[in-house]
Specification:
Keywords: Amino-acid biosynthesis, Aromatic amino acid biosynthesis, Lyase, Phenylalanine biosynthesis
Pathway: Amino-acid biosynthesis; L-phenylalanine biosynthesis; phenylpyruvate from prephenate: step 1/1
Low-confidence stretches: 1-6
Order of helices and strands: HEHEHEEHEEEHHEHEHEEEHEEHEH
Strand content: 25-35%
GO molecular function: prephenate dehydratase activity
Enzyme class: lyase
Protein name: prephenate dehydratase
Helix content: 25-40%
Radius of gyration: 23 Å
Number of helices: 11
Number of strands: 15
CATH architecture of the largest domain: 3-Layer(aba) Sandwich
C-alpha cells in the first residue's frame, strides 16, 4: 500500500475535530471569553450549570472545564468549593482574566436614551459609580450574557446591559462606554479541570490545591496548619465552608505553592493528615504568571508606604 501524499495528510488533519472546552453560561459570558483567551484552538461548549460543565468532561463531551473560582472584587464564586471534591475531575491549570465591563445598548441608542441597566448582580455592583453618575436603575438578571441577549432581543433603546465585548459582538449590541468597572484590578481567577491529573514540568512553579476536614477538637486547625509554617510552605488560599448540614463540621479548601512530592510540602501534608481526616488533593498544576506579577505589584505598593 502506498503512503498518503503530504497534501492528503494535511487535509486529513485539517478535518479532525477541535478539542472542546466547556464553560458555564450563555455564549458571550466571561467564562466564554476566558476559554477563547486561554485556549484559542479549542471549541467552547456552553452549559447551563457548573454541574453540567463538569459532567461534559466526565462524559467525554469536552476535554476541559473552565470554572471561575474567585474574583478580586466579589470574592469567591458561590457553590464551586462544594462541587470540586465530588466532581471526579482534577485541576490541571489556572488562568486569570481581567474583567472589562461594557455598557451595551441596541444600535442607535445613546446615553440620553437609557433608563435601566440589566446584568448579573456582581457586574452591577462592580459598576456602581457609573450607574450613579448616569442615574440608571439596576435590574438583576441571571448572568451578563443573558442580559445582553435579552436587551438585543427586545430592541428597547432605554434599556442597557453590562457585559463583555464578546457578548456585544455575538448579540449585535454597541458599546456606549468601555471599562466601566469601578476597580482597575477587577480580575477573575479560573481553574481548568480535566479527567486526568497532570504533572507540571520540574522547571516551572507549581500550585497544589486540596481539601480537608479538621477533627472537632480545640485548636485542631491551628495544629493542622502548623506544619506549613515550620516547613516554610507558602499557603496562598484557605477558605472554609459548612458541610453535612451542620454548624460543627467544616471543610477547608486550601492552596499552597509547590508540589506534594517537594520535601517541605510532603512534610507539611504529613502533619496535616495527623490532625485532620479526608485530605484530598484536587490538583497540582503550573502557577500562572499573573501570580508573580500581582505579587510584584503588591510588594511595590507596600514599599511605597514604608517610612
Amino acid at each position: 500500500m502506498s503512503e498518503p501524499s503530504p497534501d492528503a495528510t494535511t487535509n486529513a488533519a485539517a478535518t479532525l475535530p477541535k478539542p472542546v472546552i466547556a464553560f458555564q453560561g450563555l455564549p458571550g459570558a466571561y467564562s466564554h471569553a476566558c476559554c477563547l483567551a486561554a485556549y484559542p484552538n479549542m471549541d467552547p461548549l456552553s452549559r447551563a450549570a457548573f454541574e453540567d460543565v463538569m459532567a461534559a468532561v466526565r462524559d467525554g463531551k469536552a476535554l476541559y472545564a473552565m470554572i471561575p473560582i474567585d474574583n478580586s472584587v466579589a470574592g469567591r464564586v458561590a457553590d464551586i468549593h462544594h462541587l470540586l471534591p465530588g466532581s471526579g475531575l482534577h485541576i490541571v491549570a489556572e488562568h486569570f482574566l481581567r474583567v472589562n465591563h461594557h455598557l451595551l445598548a441596541v444600535p442607535g441608542a445613546s446615553m440620553e436614551d437609557l433608563r435601566t441597566v440589566e446584568s448579573h448582580v456582581h457586574a452591577l455592583s462592580q459598576c456602581r459609580r457609573l450607574l450613579r453618575e448616569l442615574g440608571l436603575t439596576p435590574v438583576v438578571t441571571a448572568d451578563t450574557a443573558g442580559a445582553a441577549r435579552d436587551v438585543a432581543a427586545r430592541g428597547n433603546k432605554s434599556v442597557a446591559a453590562i457585559g463583555s465585548a464578546l457578548s456585544a459582538e455575538i448579540y449585535g449590541l454597541e458599546s456606549l462606554r468601555a471599562n466601566i468597572e469601578d476597580e482597575e484590578h477587577n480580575t477573575t481567577r479560573f481553574i481548568v479541570m480535566a479527567r486526568e491529573p497532570v504533572s507540571p514540568r520540574p522547571d516551572v512553579e507549581a500550585v497544589t490545591s486540596f481539601v480537608f476536614r479538621v477533627r472537632n477538637v480545640p485548636a485542631a486547625l491551628y495544629k493542622a496548619l502548623g506544619g506549613f509554617a515550620t516547613n516554610g510552605v507558602n499557603m496562598t488560599k484557605l477558605e472554609s465552608y459548612q458541610v453535612d448540614g451542620t454548624f460543627v463540621a467544616a471543610q477547608f479548601y486550601a492552596e499552597v505553592e509547590g508540589r506534594p512530592d517537594d520535601r517541605p510540602v510532603a512534610y507539611a501534608l504529613e502533619e496535616l493528615r495527623f490532625f485532620t481526616h479526608e485530605v484530598s488533593i484536587l490538583g497540582v498544576y503550573p502557577a500562572h504568571p499573573y501570580r508573580f506579577e500581582a505579587r510584584r505589584r503588591a510588594l511595590e505598593a507596600e514599599r511605597r508606604t514604608w517610612p
